[in-house]
Each structure stands twice: as structure tokens, then as C-alpha cells.
Design brief:
The protein contains nine helices and 15 strands. A hairpin with a 2-residue loop joins strand 3 and strand 4. It folds into two domains: about 70 residues, no CATH class; about 210 residues, Deoxyribonuclease I, Chain A, CATH 3.60.10. The mean pLDDT is about 90. The protein is an alpha+beta fold.
Length: about 300
Amino acid sequence: MIKYAKTLTILAFAFGALGLIGGYFGDYHPAADSLAVFRLYALGALFFAMFGFALWRQSLLTYFSLGLLLFGVFSLRGQFANPPAVEGFSLMQHNNLFRNDSRHLVDYAQVNAPDIITLQEITTGSVQQLAAMRADYPYQVICPFSAVGGVAILSKYRFVGEQGEGCIEGLGMVSARVALPDGEITVVSLHLHWPWPYGQSTQMDALIPALEGLKGPVFIGGDFNMVAWSIVMARIEAATDTKAIGGFRFTKTLFSGLVQLPIDHVLAPPNWPASAIRGPRLGSDHNSVIAHFALN
């Protein structure tokens, strides 16, 4: 039994150290961002290893595990504080799920009336429901992406410029300049592929020039399939002068709920007061994110 416990402790330490340290090398290989996705679980493994080494009376390894654990917690400091609720215009971010007909979304929007809705995985099964929302959301744009569906923006406020001009087909991005009562903003709906070994890195290389060309202030709602502390998210924030709204919001579950990931986000300019909460699933396999912004 002691032998198995020691082996488990060593494996937990190896997984935790690799998951934590490896996640910082996304600039060198996209596999590192895949490791970053599971940083919270890496920290859990390091916590387990620290106590295992302590019971095993391995002082050096105990303190090394503690140091890595504290470093990892510090790296997530921006996510621990959920900003206080603010009032202002609202944006709802929602991966609709390609086989979802959007009836729950329609019902939710009628009751809660977010000002702007960013959507992903919009297919022909959803289009009829979105059309029925035009009385409340007269300004809509849908942009083709992949087999799981396109990206879309629905708005109560008018689009500035030609509708659909911000559609980048096949790359999971659509943008629109929206005229709010107090000024214009650019709204983006974004859907990234899963990280390495899937196509997120290549997609990002193609998207960055388009993101850099957006007129500010920029607000992004998306299923990023990526955590807020990754190199991928840092690239998007730098390209658009935005910041993911702080707080842990677990929006996707894997393996029957054993793994929960915070991979759906809303980004806003750093100087805009903003808050966000996890919203309902509305027939999807992702939770929505409901964000509010104080007009600046």
C-alpha cells in the first residue's frame, strides 16, 4: 500500500509540474496552451503531491511542491476576483450547440432582454427561431464557420455600415459596429477550434490581423475553447485592447461532469467597468455568460 501511495504521489507531482510549467510555453508550441487549459487540475495534483511528500518526509520535494502551488495560484490571481455588478448595457454570450433549435434562447431573450447577443454554432435549425426574434433584435448577422455552425450577432441597436461586412467566412469570426445611445462600439462573436492537436493555433494566426484592424472600443463574446490565462487569450487581448472579465465561470463540462472548464468569455476594454455571471445552458452543452458594462 505504501509503495502504491508513493507512486501515486510521484505521478501527481509529475502531472502537476508539467501541467503548470508547460502551460507557459504557448509562444513556442501550441501544445503548451492545451496544458494551460488544465492548470486548475494541475494545481490540484500539486496539492495532493505536497501532502504526499510531507507524509513521506521528503522535505525538499514538499517545499518544491508548495512553491509551484503558490506560483500557480498567483498566476490565476486575475480570475479569483469577480468584479462587482455594474449597470449599463448587457451582452449575452452563448454557444447555442449545433443541434439546438434555439427555442430556449428565444424564451430567455423575451424575458431578460439583453441588449446584444453573441452566438456560436448557429445552423439552419436555429435560423427560423432567430428570425422570429427580429421584432426585438432587428439587427442580425450570421457568418458561416464550420460543420458545427456559424457565428452570429443579434442587436437591439442598429449596425453602422453594411450588414455582414465584418463576416470572415470559415474563420469563426464576425464583427459589427453598433451604435449605442452614448456612442459606437465594435462587437465580435468568436468561435475558436479546440487547441492542439486541433486547429486553434492556425486559426489564431489567420485571425490576429483581422482582430488588430478592428475599430475600438471592442467587445468580444465567444466560445474560445481556451482559458483566460493562456497565451492565446493574451494574443487576442493585445490585438483588440481588451481584457477578459475576471472570475471563474465554468461553462463546459467533460467526462460526465468530472472536468469543468472556463472556456466561454466576454472581453471588454480594460477601462470599462464590467461584470459577468454564468448564465443558463438553454438547451446547449455550454453555459451562457451574461455581462454588463457601465457606459464610459
